[in-house]
Structures are given as C-alpha cells and as structure tokens.
Amino acid sequence: MKITEYAKHLLLAPNLEDKLLPPPKQWIDDSDQKSIRIETPGRNHKLQFSDKKIKIPRLEHLNLESNRGLTLHHFANHELMAIELFAWAILAFPDAQKSVRNGWVKTIEEEQTHFKMYLNRMSEFGIQFGDIPLNYIFWKQLDQFQSVESFSAVMSLSFEGANLDYSQVYAKVFSYFGDEKTSEIMIYIFEDEIKHVKRGVRAFEKSIPSEKNSWEHYLSLIQFPFTPRRAKGYLFFPETRYLAGLDANFVKQLAEYEDEYTGRVNLESVKKFGLGSELMRKKQA
C-alpha cells in the first residue's frame, strides 16, 4: 500500500474503526506526489466538531469516576485529532525526509494505541466517545502548518510537549485518588510522548539557521495568537524536555515564558495536591 493511500484513508473515512486501522507493515513511500492539504477530516455525525465549550473537570473532582471518564474523553479527542493531523502531514509534506515521514507513521500507530487505552478505560467509567461535544483545537492550527518545521513546532514541541506535563500531572492525581490503573495509562502515554516530542525536535533542529538559537527559531515558526503557553501544562516539568532532546536554553526560556493566560487554568487545583517535581516513570521489567 502507498503511504499516501493510507493517510487519505485515515483522513477521509467517516467511522472511528477506520481511523484506528494501524499502518501497514510494509508500505510504499510515494514521496513524489504533489502536496495535498485537506481542510477538514471525514467524520460521521457522532464525531463532528463542535464549537460548544466543555470544560475538563477540575483536578479535585477526579475522586468521582464520572469525572475521570470525562477527563479521558478530552484526552481521547486529542489523540484522534493527532492521528488525523499526522496523516495530514504525510499528504501535505511529501518532500519531508524519509526519516521524518517514518516517524509520523510510527506516531500515528502509537496515538491509535493511546486512543484505544482511553476508550477502554473511560467506558469502564460509563463514558462513550462522542458522548460530549468534540472540540477541534488542533485542527484550528492548519494555517500555522506552512512547513515541516512549523508543523513540528506546533504539533510536537507545543501540543505533545505540553502533554509531557499533563500526563505527569494526571498520573499523579489519579494515583492520589487511588486509581492506579488510570495512573499507569498516563505513565505509559508519557513514555511514548517523549518519543513523539523527540521526533519533532529532530525535524525542527535541522532547520535552525546559524544566526538563531532553537528558542528564537521556535518563536519564528509559530504565529499569534498561538504562543509558547501551549507548549506547557499546569505545572512545568523541565526534566521531561531534556528527555525529549531539547537544549538547556530552550527549556529555560519555556520555563520562564508567561503571558496573560498563565496560571489561569486549574493552577490553584494543582497547588492543593502538592504534586512535587519527581517524575512518575514506567516500571522496568
């Protein structure tokens, strides 16, 4: 199968089971194709995007199973958008280096696994995917994706970078409430997100001009109103960025970055838990 055929299938198929079809074990990298920029993914009525804002439950309310299910629904929605957008990148950037395209395919496969993990666990909490409106925050960034580097800056260094923090926060809070099963899911996903961000860092670093450092280059690739606040969570765990291969100056600048939205969401909830800076990692066999 040609990799572009697979990417089109993921993007245009309306049903969830089609979007979860894993990549073929052997595929043809037809990178001689013209760039195709698909504006919206195919989705059935239950998977349609909505402008209705549904807030994620506050951390202190995750003692309730129903709120854990709603929280995982938010995360699953992010995974589905990521599956679609890495497929989108395969079509939009046929001239990307083969190693980058290979990384996108592998990321799709891992995001599909994450989605299934969320789906199974939230169903145990009585929540089915599509039970609440689905936002499209990732898809709103299409105009940002003008190059492989800008795609990597937004999707990998920012959205997936922020998930390095969020997965740690939620792993700790689920564990705090005695839900080790869901906490372990978050830790599993955290370990994969390190790989995802690292893949983006590799694609991004290759394009840094000699007159700029990595932070300056990152800022040049994102467009307002998208800002670096999207690249970190309620709490910032610097060590996670080092694990993903970012340099010390970039990590320092991101840690210090603030704008008018900094600290407005869930920060007081985070403080109540005294989560600490030590990372929760997958237990080694």
TrEMBL record:
Signal peptide: none annotated. It holds the Pfam family DUF455. InterPro entries: DUF455, Ferritin-like_SF, UCP012318. It comes from the Bacteria. This is DUF455 domain-containing protein. The lineage of its organism: Bacteria, Pseudomonadati, Spirochaetota, Spirochaetia, Leptospirales.
